[in-house]
């Protein structure tokens, strides 16, 4: 151990001499304090031991999970970490005491949603090494809520909270309780080589199992994701800016979502500068879609609301390969969302959608429409550029898909409504 540490220091020194004229700017290397979390006997709650490990090693240390299954039977809050490395070699398996979670999951302060684990800090590196897994035991939840949307108290798997300059890599997320993760109040975070799979094995849908949702966050990169689920693959919500989603593969979910947004009466929210590129989609409902609430407030979040203002602008969706997209409009906009069960009122939203590029889209789909855009009469969509589309309709092998359905779309480029 001692020898190998010295060896590492020498290498570091040589490298730094190659790269810099002076080695004096090098931080003084010091061994990291390491906390190895040991699992309890069967069924005992491992959350207290995990909280202790983060308390001991959350500032400048290394938290290590062995290749074991850890039972999490209570909520965890491990925020405020500093320069912390986490190595997950095993599985964190969440308990299924629904009574407990409904009463204790931690509120996130948006859409009345809540979470099983608040996690965050600055300069955090969380590695799953392609193997480490968060397992939410979600089938219990899918069966319990039986398709009811946004069941109060049903927890998200993890909330990445107030996190800056951090990396999450090689982590698997399976059968999440609800949204897999929410990324909130965070900036400059890279999430790479992430596998998400939340699918149901019976008649209850895996609804609300979003792969990730960004809220009040800036400069977030999703690189090499695989998502197989029953809802949004990745969803960019209120105040998501400078977001990059690249080189990812999505199965069965709804596709990449902007929104829903505009749910809070008279509140200004926006989404700006989003690039989604290098995407392969198998049996998703859309390639991408934008969803806002109407201009009238009906009820309250999570399942009601509306009347929010703001805009979504500079959204680029490019280099998509589609296999069997299932719904009307490979690209879709709706501004008609209102209290569940209510319809109409598609022209009242003041939330503006503009500056969109949907380009270099190929493959085969189950619709005749390249785009279906129901924009609000009170605030039409402008500057929509759709070009370089090479889609065929699968049922009519080789027949090109060429149609558009538009309401209140102005200043189109590359196509006409
Ligand atoms: C973890 O343990 C399981 C069996 O318990 C084994 O199959 C697997 O290869 C191990 N993984 C790693 C990364 O060591
Ligand atoms: C998490 O812990 C921090 C620090 O104690 C606290 O300020 C924060 O309110 C907690 N968050 C939740 C959701 O309980
Ligand atoms: C489930 O949680 C509730 C509320 O915390 C508790 O009263 C009950 O004993 C727990 N049930 C089991 C089987 O642990
Ligand atoms: C709900 O949680 C609170 C505080 O955690 C506790 O006082 C209360 O007894 C719990 N109720 C049930 C039904 O478990
Ligand atoms: C918000 O969630 C709480 C429980 O966390 C629930 O009691 C309340 O009914 C929910 N409100 C709405 C509008 O769904
Ligand atoms: C997701 O899990 C289901 C059930 O285990 C499996 O059939 C499916 O192939 C998985 N999807 C991916 C993309 O691995
Ligand atoms: C837009 O986001 C990209 C990341 O996709 C970033 O590199 C670029 O700097 C952002 N542009 C502006 C004007 O902030
Ligand atoms: C969202 O962004 C707008 C515009 O900058 C700002 O007015 C609003 O306070 C932000 N909302 C939150 C909760 O940060
Ligand atoms: C929006 O896109 C335009 C054209 O690509 C670019 O000049 C501008 O910097 C972008 N603005 C933001 C805030 O990303
Ligand atoms: C294509 O989508 C249709 C409609 O959802 C579905 O019935 C069919 O099985 C899918 N085909 C393939 C090859 O996945
Ligand atoms: C919205 O307004 C357009 C004209 O701008 C009209 O054709 C359409 O029927 C209206 N839709 C609804 C649902 O009122």
Key phrases:
Pectin_lyas_fold, 27-stranded mixed β-sheet, Pectate Lyase C-like, 417 residues, binds 2-acetamido-2-deoxy-beta-D-glucopyranose, 50% strand, cell wall biogenesis/degradation, 4 helices, 3-stranded mixed β-sheet, mainly beta, secreted, disordered N terminus, single chain, Pectin_lyase_fold/virulence, 10% helix, repeat
Describe, in plain words, how this protein is organized in 3D.
The chain is mainly beta. It has two domains: 31-231, 3 Solenoid (Pectate Lyase C-like), CATH 2.160.20; 233-417, Single-stranded right-handed beta-helix, Pectin lyase-like (Pectate Lyase C-like, 3 Solenoid). It is built from four helices and 30 strands. The chain has helices at 2-19, 47-57, 98-104, 139-145; strands at 33-37, 61-65, 69-72, 76-88, 91-94, 106-107, 114-115, 117-127, 133-135, 155-156, 158-161, 164-169, 172-174, 181-184, 187-197, 213-215, 217-228, 232-236, 240-251, 255-261, 268-282, 288-293, 309-325, 331-337, 350-365, 369-374, 381-393, 399-400, 403-407, 409-413. The chain has a 27-stranded mixed sheet that branches. Strands 6-7-10 form a three-stranded mixed sheet. α2 (47-57) links the parallel β1 and β2 (61-65). The longest helix is centred in the first third of the chain and has 18 residues, at 2-19. The protein is globular. The N and C termini lie far apart (68 Å). One 2-acetamido-2-deoxy-beta-D-glucopyranose is lined by residues 197, 199, 226, 228, 251. Residues 344, 346-347, 377, 407-408 line the site of one 2-acetamido-2-deoxy-beta-D-glucopyranose. GO terms for molecular function: polygalacturonase activity. It holds the Pfam family Glyco_hydro_28.
